[in-house]
Design brief:
With 280 residues, the chain is of the alpha+beta class. Helix content is 30%, strand content 29%. It has 8 helices and 15 strands. The structure holds 4'-deoxy-4'-aminopyridoxal-5'-phosphate (PMP). 4'-deoxy-4'-aminopyridoxal-5'-phosphate binds next to helix 6 and strand 13. Belongs to the class-IV pyridoxal-phosphate-dependent aminotransferase family. Homodimer.
Length: 280
Amino acid sequence: ELAYYAGEFRDINEAVIPIDERGHQFGDGVYEFIRVYKGVPFSIERHLDRLERSAKAIFIELPVSRQELKDIIHQAMEKSTLKDADIYIQVTRGIAPRNHLFPDVPAQLALTIRHPRQTPEEAYEKGIFTLLLEDERWANCYIKSLNLLPNLLAKQAAASKGCKEAILVKDGYITEGSSSNVFAIKDNVLFTTPATRKILSGITRANVLECAQEQAIQIREQNMTPSFLKDADEVFITSTSVGLLPVSKIDEVELPTFRPVTVALKHAYSLRTAGTKAYQ
Ligand code: PMP
């Protein structure tokens, strides 16, 4: 496990962030989270596309080119010797005396590479409990911003009630999970919230939608109400770290345990992560 900051690879526990780093003081930055499967950073182009979009949306100029960033990622993989890994990439507006106005300084890139966080097999078999909560976030959730406080509060509130994920509801409709996207299956049709400014357009979401297309599963990117979700045949969440994870309970409502569409899509997704070149 190791870190990269200020142009150098470092021990992951080294103290390197100056007190006036805007990521540290304001959460003034954006990030990405990439999973490496068997030496291949999965869907790296999509993640780097999204990093560029997020940075642009908050007027941060990336301090390295795309090729330079890829080189740093590959060096991190080599130096760590990890074949399966979690890579966290963060870009902040830089280091300058504390002031809300943007400083005229270069952006700062930070990266860590670690052993992948594993989800217990039991969660994939049994599904997870989830809690519906009000989505208290801002209007630009399509930006993968460092400001995650509402997401943390929601996840913690869910955990305090024995739930693994908070499913967020805004203006009467499901937006997404605190760190995942939400899908439902009803009468063999796959539903998911449309990728507007109100949600993060998940890379796993995009891959799962392509898997569904390949299997000729009907797709509707459409807003879902809480009662629609509770009445669904199957519900699952997606993210880079968990892949597809079935939901067995929403609030007090138990969902059916027979999940044929989820199983088929999870299988198709695992074939992608196992590394057919066409999907990298
Ligand atoms: N929504 C939110 C709010 C998230 O934090 C995440 C995880 N990064 C996702 C969705 C899933 O995105 P991805 O599939 O790209 O990991």
